[in-house]
Amino acid sequence: MPDSLDTPEAIVRASAADLAAALADRRLTSVEVTQAYLDRIEATEPAIHAYLALDAEGALATAAEVDAARAAGEELPPLAGVPIAVKDVACTRGLTTTAGSAMLAGWVPPYDATVVGKVRAARMPILGKTNMDEFAMGSSTEHSAFGDTRNPWDLDRAPGGSGGGSAAALAAFSAPLAVGSDTGGSIRQPAAFTGTVGCKPTYGGVSRYGVIALASSLDQIGPCGRSVLDTALLHEVLAGHDPLDSTSLDAPCPPVVDAARRGDVTGLRVGVIRDLLGEGLQSGVAARFTESLEHLRAAGAEIVEVDCPSFRHAVAAYYLILPAEASSNLARYDAMRYGVRVDGASAEKTMSASRAEGFGAEVKRRIILGTYALSSGYYDAWYGQAQKVRTLIARDFEAAFEKADVLVSPTAPTTAFRLGEKNDDPLAMYLADITTIPANLAGLPGLSLPDGLADEDGLPSGFQIYAPAMADDRLYAVGAALEARLHDAWGGALLDRAPALATHKENSR
């Protein structure tokens, strides 16, 4: 824990675990912490645009309630009083929820998503809602209807997507924790691009009730943080069975916090997925990955190699399954019940005009692709075949886990690309998720943590860990062990070396 947390700068740079300890010891108040973050948001938002909506009044009210309860001797949850940001895909009662789309501009839900309810029950002040690619369709947060989010490491770079707002808020020190969602890498790839940590839990391990759906068999809510332990602490808050979600697993949360605190990999078999180390891997990313393997070996892990040959078809299968499910889920935006409405001469014309105005180009592209894949005469040839590939990918994982306890790869093949660089080439954008997609297709947990800076551009690289279903704790054990050795090598946290927001105000643009 830092020796002193007596300045706003020290407060916002402290870990969530350290903040929780300082709050519990009454060395800080939640109002002080929350106000420090609100001030940081004011200073950094002109440059970053991580947030779509803020709730300063609500956050400070929650903070004051926590402080009063603590002063009265009430027993509080571990993260009580620690602020948090929430990706704008989760419904928040009384606070706008848009999923980054003009289709839902100004919509205020009358209820909370289950994960938001859990955050409130944990007594965590909600700072606001973070920016995202529209309906979570994108890998750069450039497809938001409300403007791009910028990467705090380099303001001309993308923060990843679709959850770039949550990751950028963490990297800019404008939130200590954030809720994300991951359909094909939307937590893990932004974590890699911004030097932060993000976890996609086992499918069904965290409720999706009240989360705006993209692809229901792939979507998963998960925690985002600046350290492995912080991420585990939030994971424990979010996880658990929810009878309101028919896909929710009726099983307790794995012991993720204990695993993160231990960080022990002695005798653990770490499987390197050879199929994710091929063409397109940036040399600096490959170098940091190799160094990380050596750190794990030195920590007592056994490094083995595994083959997952069906992974080469993952992107093709994913971009049939996801658009098909998106086409079905987004059919509800028909201008008749809620969402933007452009009146026409008939119900059909009203619906057509409203969807044309409300949806952005990337959403329209995927709806068209998905509707085609599900159409008569093409269902078996496209969607059906993609589901068969999905089964093969799951079998590859099963075979690999017979040889290894966890599997690893780079989180993304490259560091953060420049804003606008891939907008004219959708396939190039889709391939940015080539290493993360397999986890979603198989429903398995995955975690990304920073493993250094690539030599070519000085930008963060990510190390990805896969585990079997409901073995999420293994992710945190490996992640914590690697993080500890990397921090020793770096002389501290990687984010302390981020250059773009060194002064936080001069760089505003």
From TrEMBL:
It holds the Pfam family Amidase. Its EC number is 6.3.5.7. Residues 32-475 form the Amidase domain. It catalyses: L-glutamyl-tRNA(Gln) + L-glutamine + ATP + H2O = L-glutaminyl-tRNA(Gln) + L-glutamate + ADP + phosphate + H(+). Keywords: ATP-binding, Ligase, Nucleotide-binding, Protein biosynthesis. The active site is at K87, S162, S186. InterPro entries: Amidase, Amidase_CS, Amidase_dom, AS_sf, GatA. Signal peptide: none annotated. Allows the formation of correctly charged Gln-tRNA(Gln) through the transamidation of misacylated Glu-tRNA(Gln) in organisms which lack glutaminyl-tRNA synthetase. The reaction takes place in the presence of glutamine and ATP through an activated gamma-phospho-Glu-tRNA(Gln). Belongs to the amidase family. GatA subfamily. Heterotrimer of A, B and C subunits. This is Glutamyl-tRNA(Gln) amidotransferase subunit A. It comes from Mobilicoccus caccae.
